[in-house]
User: Fold these one by one.
Assistant:
Number 1:
Amino acid sequence: MQEAKLKERKKAREGKAEGRGEKEETVEVEKTEVVAEGRGEEAEKEAESLKLPQIPSLKVEEFKGIRAKSLIFLIEKPKVERIERKISKVSIRTKEFNGVRANVSFNFTLPEIRAKITEIKVPVLVPKQFHELKAREVAFKRELPEISVSRRQIFVPNVRVKKFLEIKRKSISLKSEEREEVREKAERRAVTEEIAEASAEAEAVEEHEIADFFEFLLGEGASKISAGKPICVIVERTKEKIEEVVAVLCREIYRERRGGKPTPIYKRTVEELRREWDALVERKLIIVEEVSGKNEEIEMLREMLKGFFSQEMGFLILVSENPAELEDEIRKIEPSANIITVGLPPEIEHRRDEILRCIRGKESGIEVGSFGEEFKRSVEMFDEELRKYLNYGRAPLELKRDWDRLMACSPESEKEASEEHSAMKAFVWLYEWKKHGKREIPELETEDRGTDVRIGDKNYEVETLFGVGDVISKLTSKIKKYSKGEKVYFVFRNLDILRNLKSLSSFKRDWRKAGYDVKCFGFDFAAGELVPLEAFVRLKVGANIKDKDKREE
């Protein structure tokens, strides 16, 4: 009975909890639940009668979740200052978009087109050469519209047309070999244009305007050096070493007049010279580097100069601090002595690079120092460039087949020509062979006239001038092998052209008047081409004109 009461109380308590919407926890006992409602004796008796163990009362509280350990975070709140600004209202006015208007307006009505058949002639272009277009008339029928235009003003925009300059080529990437070939062709073209300009200018130059090379280079009176007689040349001691220039020119004169080369003798003083050598100057090129002008030296020099009248060509070059005083002292004791004093004119300083390049036939990035040393080196460089054309291994097969004729003096002679002569022929042969696209092979030492190089109607006569004596006499004998109207081209070394420029210009002018197509050429190794005589004339005439202008000022 007691058990039934407990069950009823339990149900009533659960129903109450559900009605209130609260959640409670109860403790279930498998068989009994003792609830102590009071603390009287009756409850204790009942418990003892039931013999149940005493269960402590449990106080149940509402489950409020699991609380974590309290963590305190201190965060400083930023101070925010309130900024108050007054914003004035902006009124924006808008206009209705009416589209984009053009600057130029056209106001006209379309014409009424009426077609009718008529006959017109339209030219047909027939190209012939690149620079010339000729028209040919062709007639055909077509409908030509007849246009009637209403008389209204039409506004036409002003169109500006720029001057046509050129057609630009697209950039093309080339290989290094191709770029080098293009560059060389451009350089040759520039040289050719410059030469053509020089030729036009030089043709108008009178013979009297062409100065003697020795006077042009070494001043007035220097032309006596080329007279072919024993001579004493006095030069001033300077950093330009003029004695080297004089020595080279004297050697070339000797080779031309006598053939071979004079014996070079360099001595420091006149006393050293007399101890080791006799008083003869012929066939020698003597350079005394220090001449003071003392009485003992003047007496030694007098003995040498007295024998000049009965000697062959020779040169005595004296270097002195006071060349004018030295010449005066010598003339006091030997008035008839063949003596000249030379020096570089001030104008040469502005043209020295041009002169040196003309002599060597190419540019040079190496500067030796003094003008005398550079002059001497330029002549040597010319000979070195010539010798490259005698390299059998690098010669084309067509030239190798005529190598015997290249090295011979003439077709009927077994004697070999000088190295310079053969190299000059090789240059001319290669120049013309390349110029004709390697399709025509020039002839060497022709059988009929012994022409050095011939191709087509061009006859090349190569001249070194070694041992010829009189230059014009030699050239005259050569040109007489040909007839009027034939092309006869003479080729010389560059220094030989400069030394004989005046006489060569006169020779060319005279024979052209006689009906011969005569030309004279030098060498341009940089471009691989022959340079006409007129380019050398312009070099010297330009200097003369400049000097004349200075004198007039």
Number 2:
Amino acid sequence: MTAATTEVRINPLLEVSRDELQRLVVDPIASVQRVDGGLTNTIHRVTLQDGKVVAVKHYAEGREPFEAELVTLTLLHGSLPVPDVVSVDEDHPAIVYRWIDGITFNELRRSQPPAAFASLAEPLGRLLAFLARTDATEPFELQPILDRAYAQLTQGRCRERIGAPLADAIKAGLEAAEPTLAWGSVCLVHGDFGGRNLLVQRAAGDRWRITGVIDWEATSTGSPLFDLGSLFRYADRYDATFRADFERGYREADGTLPERWLLAARLIDATWIIDALDEPHEVPGLHADCRTLLARLAAELR
């Protein structure tokens, strides 16, 4: 399945009629609004005539991501702030869930004072420490992922798109970090843990709280480093104080981290970026963003 590796839209929006939405929500509709921000699927905010609000999510990539998200939401319900499923459509993969109020973490970063953004560092650490302790749902092996990345960096489309010097630098960084990349117990991995999939609300003053973690269709089993790397993919958004507060929250929630955990997490996250760069189709915006991310990572490896 495809995770949204960067902040460039992957799939075109699906055409969903009001009649289709009405069939799914059953109760009379007052208004419909398509939700911006999703990069893979198509989501509508539907307000019912009784005042209740639901989200209707249609899956652009078919049954696999639909089933992955449905199973994960059921598994995590009551443990993490995940969407509460109202109904599903098995024939035309779609999920209806209760609307979660709030703005995305990305929106908060752009529109609120720095103190508001910083207030979520420790809560995010605690949340990911909890996810790192979840039970794995299937086996996981890191070596095949690294071997594929090495091949893509040595002779694949990825190497052609980013150039030999950058490809060689990233490959050397991965090889040097292999012992650390193998750290951690296998757990449930969100697969796209980042600012657009975190919903937050103001608690008091400049203090904010996490109200929802959404978009679980890329869920898999893997290392806790994957979600850490996904969160810190755009590393320049997080200053040293944010990173320290995040680490404190993670450790206080009984989470453990390896030495140089942030670099290790960003390197393991790079395997997803490399995958995106090795796709056969040309997606200029996506590939340009991926090249920039790898170039920044390589600069830190020097």
Number 3:
Amino acid sequence: MAIRFHIARAALAIAALVAFSGFTVQSQNSLPPEFRWPMPSRENRPWTRWWWLGSAVDKTNLTRLLTAYRDAGIGGVEICPIYGAKGYEGRFIEFLSPKWMEMFTHTAAECKRLGLGLDVTTGTGWPFGGPNVTPEIASGKVVLKRYDVAGGEQFKTELPQGQLQCLMAYSDKAEQLNLSDKVANNHLEWTAPAGKWRLYTVLRSSPAQKVKRAAPGGEGNVLDPYSIKALDQYLARFDKAFADYQGEKPRSWFHDSFEYYGAQWTPDFLREFESRRGYDLRTQLPALFGEGPEDTVARVKSDYRETISDLHLAYIERWTEWCHAHGSISRNQAHGSPANLVDIYAAADIPETELFGSVEEKHIPMNKFSSSAAHIAGRKFASSESFTWLTEHFQGSLSQVKQAADYLFLSGVNHIFFHGIPYSPADAPWPGWQFYAAVNFGPQGGLWRDLPEFNAYITRCESFLQSGAPDNDILVYYPIYDVWNDPSELIRPNPVPKSLTNVVMMLWENGYSFDYVSDRLLAKAECRSHRIVLGGNEYEAVVVPDCRLMPETTLKKLIELTRDGARVVFEKHLPADVPGMGNLELRHAGFRQLQEKIGEGDGDAHLKHWKAGEGDMFVSTNVQALLELIGANREPFTRHGLRFVRRKSGEGFLYFIANRSESAVDQYVPFGTVVESAIVFDPRFEKRMGMAEIFHHPVGRLTPRSLLSDADLRTACADIHLQLQSGESCIVRTFTNKVVKGPIWPYFTNAGPAQQVGGTWKVDFIEGEPKISGSVEVTELRSWTDFDQSELKSFAGTGRYTITFERPEVKADDWMLDLGKVCESARVKLNGHQLGAVWCAPYREKVGEWLKPGKNILEVEVTNLAANRIADFDRRKVKWKYFYDINVASKRYRSLDASDWPLVDSGLLGPVTLTPLKKTAIK
């Protein structure tokens, strides 16, 4: 599409900027509506997985904890019953028993009263399974066994354990015999005809797995994830338990990540395969076993994998139908499945990804699947199981969590779930009941005191990220058939192919926003006014990564879209062939006809172009250069280390922008959308927002002039002044045809060097364990683990630092208080004024409004992590790990032993400085 710039009216913009002054707004209601945060809903707030250990819950503690969660800014809970705590067996409640339903009913009522949302897992632990899952409907492995038999031999053998699916004999003369009816009680007796014979036996071994981390009453076999009949039988247990339930319905039911380990077969597989792929798999068993020409083996295994994908998709679709029939919606994690991830995610009402440990951008290709599915399927929410194993137990800080949350937002997530909070009764000694994996966001996890500030940050971000609609530029085809067309092992989680990774990382780094699209969902796309419409969203082009195999129906659809006005870009070459084995000659012929329709095209080996109807088709060895050539929209500011997610609103666009570089950004950065005026919001603070400085250009700069229309040449692109330290983020709300009026965003530069706040600090330990009496005075800030009191080496809690200091005699428009190194979160008070919490790096705040000439009193309350106390517990052999199953594990999935942990720095380490600031002039 043409670049979306707008003619500037700089004089109007400046007039609006100077019409208001000031920065800290006293009330949201006093602001013009454009400057207000959206009214927070329960979905805007972070939710949490809530582990019911042993389902050993009671009404008093349920109400107490739910109230605490609400007061801390949590928006909802997802009940997940798991294994229990040793010594509390008398409190265990059987899953779905009348007592369990009583506790669930109370929870639902309290959530409604408190304004909290309620989700629930469709079982205990994970994945689906339990006591009503018989071997017949349990997940099953496939057992493949070969026998060589000479002609005339009377062959007798005991087959491997399992349910026989088929037994075929193939001769050296290409004869095929079905010997399945020769098997009785797993015993085969057969006299081979003349020739050399090889027997291929397929059996299903079931059950393959027990439910992981099951709660009392939830133990049992894991369900077959490829059978609707098995699913219906499994869900009947829930139908019975909830038959007389009159309470508030769960908002959604949850299906965890695909951890049906070893699930490779289902009893109806052969019938389903023939129905879906068009041939009898029993005629191609050598290829399934990995024998024969590599191309044939790969094609047959591709068909097997596609059938597995189809069956799991039907399973998730049926489960979603069941959720709807019970007045709820579905929430699903598709990752880990051997299926088309785009389709599986899109089959749920809320697709959910998972952040497991690392937040490196190399994981973006994987994390984009769920939000892509949400967008192209028209879903409002893309959720995330968040912060799983971000760090070791009790070692994760809110500053680290903030960076991980920003990463999730950038990947398209707009509905964060903590992973998580374990239910812990009031009488359980600290640290209470624990889940085996980090991070614990509950009252006894070490982050609770300042967690409300982080929750408010999430709420403000998600209030915008759930507004409007997604606005991504490019649809990227998911070349799943190149993944499936593999002659190696039979089944595995689908990797992200290298060709896809290369393309999407190029798009990511160069400011092109994108969503994935599958063959099934691409079939629903339309082209209107040269834009591809899918899921209610519009895209400028389809990019097909280096891809050898493509169904003829998909290639035909791409040609149709092109004729209707779309732009389609193939990397390196057009697809060369169709996937799979069924009806191959007929499909080959159809594919060749499509290739002939496309023709040779104009250009050379590096770039070819086809004009088809109203649209254009390209093949390019350099997709980035081609996108620049055709003027595809992008956000150029990514070259400054900024990353973004963009949504469209009725009056313009909403941006979440994070500085993921190591350097500060303080400059005008170019935006790729039409901007007449803009408001910057700092989501860390409720009252921090203001009109942005904008510099408009008379001519669009991102596209060669030869490609711009007359209208484009009359438009202007705009640069917005952003000031973001490394790790900081902001919301930018832009307006396309409107100059808004309100408070301006104050831009400051340093008016002089930083001045250290020196003198004697008085330190009092006001909360935490062990109890520390008396004050400590220090003139040099250091970790309190280095103070003389030995108890501080194991202290977990809050210390208050107080100092009286003189304001520097320097002229300044404002002052920046920088706390330096904080371990790990702080609340600041200056001259009796609560300045709020600084809970993430950089630990800075403007304080000029409260700084006075002469003496000033600064108080900083610093809360550390609980790691030192936990390490002390393990050194002293304190019994705090007393849970069934895996108990408490380390990040490496070994039994957690913190006794060798080094001391973690704690407190205010500084240096604490004041820097004079001066306002910059409006340009």
